[in-house]
Amino acid sequence: MIEVLIADDHAAVRAGLVLICAGAEDITVVGEAADGEAAVEAATRLRPDVVVMDIRMPRVDGIEATRRLAGIADVLILTTYGGDSHVFAALSAGAAGFLLKDTDAPALLEAIRVVARGDGLISPTVTRRLIAEFGRRRPETPSPDLALLTAREREVLALVGRGLSNAEVAVRLDMAEATAKTHVSRMLAKLGLRSRVQAAIMAREHRIDLVHSASP
Description:
alpha/beta; Rossmann fold; Arc Repressor Mutant, subunit A; 2 domains; six-stranded parallel β-sheet; 11 helices; globular; disordered C terminus; DNA binding
């Protein structure tokens, strides 16, 4: 059973999300929060698998709340604000997923499942903009110290940069899915990243691919 905390400052939206989750046999809502500060407090206490988080909320917004939840719960941003600044801020804060509120119920439930199993997910319309942006700009962050990674971890980083899930990485590298997930976790820790989405952004920014990740 996937345990979910819903954080949104609109009671009607929270009620709607609770109703959607109630229609899934494998998802249960364990708590609600009306602002980012309450979301952090509730998630720290309840330890849900996924926090479905709005961005604009009183006291503490969803971006800062996501940053505070690193290591506590995976965050799926669900918002009406799809501007590039919001997307990059959320992903930089460590969000594992980013969806717009026009997402239909089945897609939202599947996104919760994807994030819960350790994969990342971004709204298709947002993904297209991100890819276009990566194609235009030069890296703004220092190049990651790839020397920290094993040859296998560099391969995993390259595949995460292509948007592959843990299951797809496992098939591509002929390993168990649990092993792929372990490699992803170690790669994130060595590079000081909070989510596989951040790793994918880094890989794309620095043009990291299998050609460059192969061992000497």
